[in-house]
Amino acid sequence: MAFGGASLALAALVLVSCASAVVATQYTVGDTSGWTTGTDYTTWASDKKFKVGDKLVFKYAGAAHTVDEVSASDYAACSSSKVLSSDSTGTTTVTLKTAGKHYFICGVTGHCSGGMKLVVNVAAASAAPAPAPAPTPAADTPDAPDTTPTTKTPSSASSSDATPKSPATAEVTPRAKESSTSGATGLRAAAWAGLALAGLVAMF
Ligand SMILES: [Cu+2]
């Protein structure tokens, strides 16, 4: 009983530690550069997969910069007139609570237009990655006309492909040989099996 309880507790502990390992990652924005001018945050974010529950830590000289979470249009326009949240304490920790894109800019004049802006695309925490990509194609409506030219390209390419198909048919001949040799080895194997069987019968 005591052993059973202990192993159950251990199993629970392992489960919890595994779960917490998956739950959240903390990112220092700009790594060692921190939140400042002269750092390309698009590049910084490009190789990271943010998910709900992750944290962004902005480190900067307090009052020298701000961390303003803004809308997509205000991000594009570098406008801090309608911020969703703002902080200038020097260390701003933002928990990414919802899937989709989150936009951050520095509200100090000239900084955002100089590149002090960050957009992160946040995926749902686990089982449901579907709702996260769903709003993206809806927002990127200009993508839709792209499908028409792309479908046209393979059709023209396939007509030119028709010519090099003849060497492909030529390949069929060696393949047929291969299958006949494999058939021969199959026959040999069957012969050996027959011999072995005969040997067994002879032993009895
Ligand atoms: Cu700034």
TrEMBL record:
KW Glycoprotein (keyword) present: yes
PROSITE patterns per UniProt: PHYTOCYANIN
Top-level lineage group: Eukaryota
Domain Phytocyanin: 25-124
Feature: compositional bias, Low complexity: 137-170
Residue numbers spanned by region Disordered: 129-184
GO CC annotation: plasma membrane
Protein name: Phytocyanin domain-containing protein
